[in-house]
Write a structure and sequence with these properties.
Layout (H helix, E strand, L loop, with lengths): L9 E5 L7 E5 L2 E5 L1 H20 L8
Antiparallel strand pairs: 1-2, 2-3
């Protein structure tokens, strides 16, 4: 099964007094992340972008 959405609104906010101060909102879902989790997610996203840039364009089933 595959679920894809294009042009999904993404919003990032900060709630400094919360135990999970980084708020990520994607397509109506809200996620609270700790600072370490947010940094790890950012690194994983950056790595995925770099990997995608290195691969030839085409349809991917990943």
């Amino acid at each position: 099964m595959r679920l894809s959405m294009k042009d999904v609104p993404v919003r990032v906010a900060v709630a400094p007094t919360s135990p999970c101060p980084v708020r990520l909102r994607i397509a109506g879902l809200s996620f609270g992340l700790g600072t370490g989790e947010a940094i790890n997610l950012a690194r994983q996203l950056a790595d995925a972008v770099e990997k995608a840039r290195q691969q030839p364009r085409g349809d991917s089933n990943e």
